[in-house]
Amino acid sequence: MSLSSLFRRAALSILAALLLPVVPLALPAAAATAPPSDDGWPRAVASGPLEFQVYQPQLDAFDGHRIDFHAAVSVVEPGSDAQTFGVLWGTGRARVDKDDRLVVIEELRIPRVSFPASEDGGEAYRAALSRVLPQKPRAIALDRVEEELAILAAGKKVEGLPLRNEPPLIVFSPRPAVLLFVDGEPVFRPVEKSRLRRLVNTRPLVLDDGAGSLWLRLFDGWLTSAALEGPWSVAATPPRELDEILARLAPTSIVDLLAGEPSDPDDPKSTPKLAKGPVPAVLLATSPTELVVTEGEPDYVPIPGTQLLYVENTTANVFKHLGDQQTYVLLAGRWFRAPSPKGPWEYVAGKALPKDFAAIPDASPKENVKASVPGTRQAREALVANDVPQTAKVDRKATKVEVVYDGEPQLKAIAGTTLQYVVNSAVPVLRVDARSWYAVDKGVWFVATGPRGPWAVAASVPAVIYAIPPSSPVHYVTYVRVYAATPQVVYVGYTPGYTGTLVSVDGVVVY
User: In sequence order, what are the beta bridge partners of 58?
Assistant: First the structure.
């Protein structure tokens, strides 16, 4: 995988004072080495009639003399409320003052920008930014630069590590169905204060009553079966104990209650009801599997100007290419193909796709798949969106986290690092060493001396965490950053990698 995706997540508070002029420091000796406080990101920059928001800069290189970075940026045109997003790249000469623990950036330049939605690629915006950003030297704390360099070095350890692109088992169903994925052999464990046991290596809520019946929560009720393989049927009078366990587990996010999507987005109560039907089939899977549901047999529709057909009666992205007679499926940003829906499936790099995919008209119902076709405007816009961080200022005393374990904390090593993570917690928990434990919840880092807490908002995060490889189930935590901290607040942020995105070697966003 390209390290550019990781650089984007190594969000750089290195330029926290970028928009502030250099001023003499008159701090007590004891405080002279502390990084200056940070007012958070994004920062507003005006250039003539244009209003920019510059997001947290991200380090690309620093050799003690030259500093290179890039940052997401948005602009609002006069008379408009709509934001146009892009990325700017900056470079400058760094003068290191070790006495005052400062790095002063001089001769700042903005050599290029990328605004995919702009007709000129953003050249007018680059000129506007170049008029205001380099006007004065800028100062940042040397301590902050050193911290960012450590994180950058950790990120380099995973440079070039490939994404997992092995084809999953792809199952087509012409009738409503849901997937019951069990990670390996089924493992049932007792539910506290109950005679029932829960299937713990799956996300859906599956309970065993010990009397020969299994119970699966689906939509607004319960299905029952004598075996995981089924057949499953609607339970007319489920035991009351099932709902008692449901009430206890629902707030923890440990289970997926398979409530279904509302038929009306504006009405949360319009979720599917078992009584109304149809009741979906339950398909058991114990290895990576993707389910494609069609309303009856696949209905193929041509895409004008191409040799492509697409399946109209499914929410999935399924295509037939008339040139090579292959079936193509887009799953989690990755393309797979096979001679027929029955397989065998193989991964297709984006750059190896037939050119017809890039030629899908923008007015087509399948225009959205072009975000996963390298070189298209949609793919470039997706990359820009993947750079824009969500930032917040959190109160160190008021912000709390509740970490719930399914039994005693169970640790598993993270390959290529000295770290371990807890496998039986909905909140990701990492063990750095015997007295250093870190957790992430809602984009905020917490720290404790043990797995049971007490947890406090973390003012910094060890660089080793950012060496977690993309193959790890907890790699997504590397996209959450602590930008700055004061005794009262911590400035935090995350890029979309935290919610499951990566950038492939093809230069497209995958999940």
Answer: 11, 70
